[in-house]
User: Fold this.
Amino acid sequence: MLNISTKKKSDHSESLDERLIQLARHCQKFRGAIVGRSLFQLLSTLLLFAASLTVIMATYENHYWVVALMIIPTGGLVVRLFIFQHDCGHQSFFKSRKWNDRVGRALSIFTFTPYGYWREAHNTHHATSGNLSKRGVGDIDTLTVREYLARTWFKRLSYRIYRHPVLLLLIGGPVMILILQRFPVGQPAPFRKIWRSVLGLNLALAIVYGSLVYLIGAKFFLVVYLPIICISAWVGGWLFFIQHQFENTVWEYAKDWSFKKAAVLGSSYFVLPKILQWFSGNIGFHHLHHICGVIPNYRLQECHETAPHMPEIREIRLWQSLKCLRLTLWDEDLRRLVGFRQLKEA
Assistant:
């Protein structure tokens, strides 16, 4: 756990805008890939993933307790591979666009996420995060209190069902990864470009996993590999949720929206135990990632440790993050996320 109290504190007489500019300038020093570190991360994680699957394959018929123990960290390795794919989408894992795109597409086989389609949506998310006038691409649907109250009872009920943690995270995560990403209807990116990415991955998945089912049998895929993908979807979905869905996040309409403010104050610094920080590829430093998306995952901690102190940064601990599940609506008057219960009390 980082001890940010040891950092030199900035002059509080400086305005927030000045501190944000200082932070943005600091982050620029850490942009760009270190190819040797990227290759070591990629190869070591793939070796661990292969070793884990080998152990599972050798034991799943007779020692399912071993499989049960191995499924969770194996799902965590899929999350880590997704972070590498994520860095490729930001062109920060390798120096060459060609190799970022090649590796990003190859990792789609493990993450089930079509690289080109996801990259377009995610870049839109970075460009519009915290902008109430540009919601709906690469984010979790969030209504304001006024919008919610203006809806019919049926549409209110639909939103409540959508925002329930069981549907949004437990069911929604795997459904998104396994099914919805196979048919990305209604996305704003060019139709031909998106469908080339999606259909290309669908074909690759059919060949790779169809061959595995043919050689090993459907039981292994259904009993072992699908749970691994579900675990990675749950973990990934939770990380994505907590990065922006916390009480004192920042939302503004376009006329008042600021990229730097939304990036740093509308994104959490999710403090995780070291082992979880490793599996999640330092994505907990999300405030730094949003202010400078081209910092490779392995440089985020160093960037954080040497950054000018900003008391406004939204730090969230693991146990605190669970309280965010109840937050569902943006209150424009209170300027914070609130839950349905708070709305009823008001």
Observations:
- Residues 17-345 form one domain.
- Residues 1-11 have pLDDT under 50 and may be disordered.
